[in-house]
Amino acid sequence: MENGEVLAQARGIYSEVMPELFARENVVACGLGYKIRGEEQTNELSLIVSVVQKVPAAELAPKDLVPKTVDGLPTDVVEAGFIRAYLPCDPRARQRPAMPGISIGHYRITAGTFGLLVQRAGIPYILSNNHVLANSNDAQIGDPIWQPGPLDGGTSSDQIATLAEFEALDYGEQPGQCSVAKQVAEILNLLASLTGSSHRLQTVQKTAGQNRMDAALARVDDLSLVQAEICDIGLPTGVGEPLLGLPIQKTGRTTGTTQGRVQQINVTVNVDYQGRTARFTDQIIAGRMSNPGDSGSCILDMSQRAVGLLFAGSEQVTIFTPLQRILDRFNVTLIS
């Protein structure tokens, strides 16, 4: 912590040079803070000059270069992006450009939440849950994605993306592959039809029933239809880790912007999908900060680093998956 004399001296220098610094191209803010080296904050009091985008010094005119020091006070140039007022948004309304945190869904579901805007090989995708974008496995690649979702009035004219890829949900069983079992089932079903019974047998085989995520991607139809800023929160600043005790926030279609804290890590949990149970491993539990329709919301820490993707909850808790795992699975990165 700086003593009063040092801070007063720094404030005096700042007041004198601030108008000159703002005259430089690309500068959007000036203030006093501690210099950042790499990703670590030092204890070196500096004059922080925020720019829309950092560019190599060789590409700047001499008049636009920020000096290393000003009257003995070190400077630090940081990238802050284009700063704008965050106007309130309605998470259930139609929005163009659409943004994370608002209503979205496969054309045959009710509605979920647009989680994040991501990219792969320069192609933009919407990231949300399988059960939001892929109708809990019951969808085809290329199916339309509407914003807002059908429950919020979305129609075919509201399509903004198409289903591109999803991680299938494993409920612990899948159609059987044994040819003998299939033949036996066919014979029994034939006998059932001859006796007038409407019941039919289907062969299934047990699977591991272990899920690591509920996630899907939708390819954006036109980049002008979307933006990366999260409703009422702003741009994610990167990807973080959901550590135990971490304060977190999210914006979702149903409950809007809420806050909570990571309560448990490495969680194994059974999740109900309209009567079918899927077991998930290595998940995160937070306190209650969501309701149905918030599925797909991005979970962020209070520095706006994206740390998870919300997919389930109850009256007491919220369940989410660490985000980096999902980004790695789909080989995508954040657009921010």
Explain what you see.
- The structure is a single chain.
- Helix content is 14%, strand content 39%.
- By secondary structure, the protein is mostly beta strands.
- Among the domains are: 4-79, no CATH class; 173-206, no CATH class; 238-322, Trypsin-like serine proteases (Thrombin, subunit H, Beta Barrel), CATH 2.40.10.10.
- The chain has an 8-stranded antiparallel sheet with strand order 6-5-9-10-14-8-7-22. Strands 16-17-18-21-20-19 form a 6-stranded antiparallel β-barrel. It has a 4-stranded mixed sheet with strand order 1-2-4-3.
- The mean pLDDT is 87.
- Quaternary state of this entry equals single chain
Please count the beta strands (DSSP E, at least 2 residues each).
Answer: 22
Low-confidence stretches: none
Q: Class of the domain at 238-322, according to the CATH hierarchy? A: Mainly Beta
**How many helix segments?**
4
CATH A-level architecture of the domain at 238-322: Beta Barrel
- Give the helix proportion (percent range): 10-25%
The coarse silhouette is elongated
Query: How is the CATH topology of the domain at 238-322 named?
Result: Thrombin, subunit H
- Taking all Cα atoms into account, the compactness measure Rg is 25 Å
Summarize the biggest pleated sheet: 8 strands, antiparallel
Average of the residue pLDDT scores: 87
Instruction: Note the gap between the termini.
Output: 32 Å
What is the string of SSEs from the N terminus onward?
Answer: HEEEEEEEEHEEEHEEEEEEEEEEHE
Taking strands numbered 1, 2, ... along the chain, how are they ordered across the largest sheet? 6-5-9-10-14-8-7-22
